[in-house]
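Before the break, one more example. Copy the sequence into your notebook; we will annotate it together after we see the structure.
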Amino acid sequence: MKIAILGGTGPQGRGLALRFAKSGVDVVLGSRDASRAHEIATELTQLIGGSNGELGVISGTDNEGAVNAADNMVILAVPFSAHNATLTAIKPLLSDKILVDIVVPLAEGNPKAVAMPAEGSATEAAQALLGNEIPVVGALHNVSAHTLNKLDQAINCDILVCGNDLAAKEQVIALIQRLDVAAYNVGPAVNARCVEAITPMLIRLNISKKVPFSHAGLKIWAPST
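Here is what the structure looks like once it is written out:
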């Protein structure tokens, strides 16, 4: 399996690339700067100890090249300021792909709050821009980049997955489960408004001096029997 991560040179993109490669998934990092993507891919390959039969291969190129190289799944991990422009540029290449949108529209200058677009969430904005023929799945919004990059530690949260296409969600859930985490279908794309809004709450907690932890995540707990 080969996936693309656009915005793969940023902290969250790097962490996801490392985690997926460790699970045996090939990853192509996409960036506006292909040489930068190639450089980061080389660094990440060294961090996981090279590539062998058990590890996925990490490579880097420009955004368009990364989308074309992916089998059927493209993860969007760019800042929200680049969200719509990136999607507009790659839309013609997504006809047979699933777009996994992990972007959170944080308020400018204030990561402790969201500034949702007119559509209601980044996930809904992506679906509106791409049209219903390209499935958009919102996922991985609430995972700390710091946690993703700490390969010696397990991911400390569950993953909430939303979107309007059930088959696409099931494929994304199967991919995420390769990271040894639980992933849950939490409904249609409109529910991304709630899921994306959790991120600034976690950021607020994680930077607060009044709580004894940082880089916390969200867990879904079953009732005790």
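The chain has a mean pLDDT of 94. Strands lie at 2-6, 26-31, 58-62, 73-76, 98-101, 106-107, 110-114, 136-138, 159-163, 183-185. Try to locate both features in your own notes.
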